[in-house]
Each structure stands twice: as structure tokens, then as C-alpha cells.
Amino acid sequence: MIEVNRKGEVWVFAEQHYGKLEDTPLELMSKARHLADILGVKLAAVILGAKVGDIPKKLIQYGADKVYSVENPMLEHYQTNSYAKVVCDLIEKHQPQIMVYGATVTGRDLAPRIASFVKAGLTADCTDLQIGDHKPAGSDEIHKNLLFQVRPAFGGNIIATIINYDRWPQMATVREGVMPMPEPDVNRKGEVIKEQAQLSQTDLPLEILEEHKREKKVDLKAARVIVAGGAGVGSKDNFKLVWDLANVLGAAPGATRAAVDLGFIDHDHQVGQTGTTVRPSLYVAVGISGAIQHQAGMSESQKIIAINNDPEAPIFQFAHYKILGDLNEVVPMMIKALKEKTIKEEVVTAK
Questions:
Q1: Average pLDDT value for the chain
Q2: Phi and psi at residue 228, in whole multiples of 5°?
Q3: Phi and psi, residue 331, nearest 5°
Q4: Range with the poorest average pLDDT among 79-93, 264-278, 313-327
Q5: 10-203 fold
Q6: Are 100 and 64 contacting, i.e. CB atoms less than 8 angstroms apart?
Q7: Which of 169, 192, 196, 279 is the most buried if burial means most Cβ atoms within 10 Å?
């Protein structure tokens, strides 16, 4: 067990694959920078790989004061055992007080193993991180400046705040897309600390012969306009209305978990607690009731248009524009109006 070090650094695990840094650690840098500033400590990133190139420099530009860089040929392919051993060695040596990971496939695999090794707690799939004080029940002691790990619980019906005051480092995985991407500062200075990996062949129980990675069909996080459909669309054939409206608007098609589970569209398009978190300029919700699980992934959209035939649908409580009606009538009317507007603009431009 690692000693409680209230002056320890805040760490972000900087996930990379074959020299390409993932977006998630960069998203985490803004929140981690805020936490470190409140605590008055350094923010550090941890990067592992065979060759990390200029990634440490990029991490400094995005807010890191330090980067612990570990390069070793045995770290070329991600394996749980080898990566966990290296990170645990770094934790034991430097004793950070907080370490956060992206809730990616790699983060969800690596973080629990590290937590088990160092006998620390771990909160998965957080949507927010804060600093606060806590007084345990039946105790007069107040624990200052703890990491409040906020996440949905009980199927998204409540928001739970989880703390860990006696087993450190305090660790959490954070969902992709819930933290805004910070702006890089190309003039920012920091320290790159090169560490050694103490690995042997026994730390690599698997031999990876080939690795295949399928790219997502849609990048919802980068989309400025999203048209999403829910179970209320009715069928996979009827979901074509969502695609048609998205095409007219130059938008990305999205969906609720219910629509994905019904087979209307594949998981790459899912928005919500178990999908992608998005912040588009415009979000058009077609046949979506607005359950809290879906709200968690899109409520920060700048403008929300909701189309539903149920006046009591929860989505009407937070939508900026509400259209009460049958989507089978409303959506074709919207498509027709948008196409006519486009044609008129083309004619005016041609003149």
C-alpha cells in the first residue's frame, strides 16, 4: 500500500498506440490541470511505449508540468502485465496523490490492475472530478482536499460522489468526451523525465502476432451538428428519416442506446452514458424520450431541437426548441424546407 502523500502530484495516464497519442488524455489535461492548481502541486503525464517521439512535448503544451517518459522495445504492444508493472513502479517511486485514466478499452483494462497492485480504490466511468473536504461518519477528523469522483449510478438514475481518504493514490477512469479539449500553448515549458522499465520476458505472458484495429465509422465528438434517433423512430427502415435529415444538414447521424439495441443503427453512432459524449452546436433529437442516460451524453449541446409526439417526454424539459408532432410528418417537412432553401440560395448565388 502506498503512503498517503498530500503533497503528491496529479498524474494523467497518456495513452498512445504506435506513437499516436489518443485524444482522451488530452481531454483529461484540462480537468487535471484545474485539480493540480487547487491542490498547489505539479501536474504530470505518464507515457509508455517503444518510441514516444514528440508526445512528451505535446503533453507539456496541453498543460503538463512534467512528463514521465518510459521507452522500451517490450512496451511496443500494450499488454496489461507489462504496462501495469511499469506504472506501479513509477507510483511507488514518486507517490502521486491522484492518477486519472481515460475510460477507454485500454484504460478500463489497465487501471483496475494497477489499483489491485497498489491496494488503492478506483472509481470507473466518472463524468466529473472535484476537490473537497470529507468528515467520515463517527469521526471528528476532517480530511482536506480529497478527490471527489462523480459518476452516474443505478442505471443513471442518481449521481454518486465517491471518495477515498485512506488508500492512495486516488484513482479514477473518466469517460471519453466529458471533459472539453484544452487549447495547446506552444510556448509552454516543462520537464521530461526519462524513466527505465524494469521488465523481463516473464512480464510479457503473451506473444502478439498481429493487431487489427477497426476505425470508427463516425466521429461524433468532432461533429458540429448531430441528428439522433431513438426507439420512437419505430423501425430500421424508418430510421432512414434520421439519415436523410442528417444528410441535408451535413450532420453526423446519432442514436440512443435503445435504438442501437433494436438494431436500427450500429454502436459507433450511440450517444449517451454508454456511448459517446458530444457537445455539438446543434443536436436534433428525433423520437428520443430523453432518459437521463441519454442526457448524460448530449445535454451540453449548444442548441437542442426535440421532435416527439409525447408532450410529457423528458427531453422537452431541457430542449431549446420543442416540436410536438409525429416525426413521420415533421421530419419530411423539415427536409423539404431545407432543400428548397438550399435551391433558392444556389439560384441567388448563380445570378
A1: 90
A2: -120, 145
A3: -65, -45
A4: 264-278
A5: Rossmann fold (3.40.50)
A6: no
A7: 169
- The domains of the chain are located at 10-203, 220-350
**Cis omega before residue 169 (within 30°)?**
yes
Chain centroid, CA 81 distance in Å: 24
Continuous segment of H or E residues that includes residue 316? none
Distances (CA, A) of 234 to 118, 219, 230: 49, 25, 8
134, containing H or E segment: strand 128-134
Fold designation for 220-350 = Rossmann fold (3.40.50)
All three cell numbers of 242: 434520421
Average pLDDT over residues 298-320: 94
Fold match between 10-203 and 220-350? yes
Cβ contacts of 77 within 8 Å, gap of 6 or more: 208, 211
How far is the C-alpha of 254 from the C-alpha of 267, rounded, in Å?
Answer: 9
pLDDT digits (tens, 9 = 90+) for 23-55: 999 999 999 999 999 999 999 999 999 999 999
pLDDT exceeds cutoff 90 at 109: yes
What pLDDT is stored for residue 215 in this prediction? 74
DSSP 181: P
**Model-level pTM?**
0.79
The answer to whether 62 and 26 have CB atoms below 8 angstroms apart is: yes
Which string of b and e fits 7-21 if b means at least 16 CB within 10 Å? ebbbbbbbbbeeeeb
Distances (CA, A) of 87 to 25, 208, 319: 16, 21, 44
Question: Could you report the per-residue pLDDT of 167-226, keeping only the tens digit for each?
Answer: 889 999 998 888 888 899 999 999 999 999 988 888 888 888 877 777 777 889 889 999
Q: Quick one: angle between helices 240-249 and 327-350, nearest 10?
A: 20
Residue 138, pLDDT above cutoff 90 = no
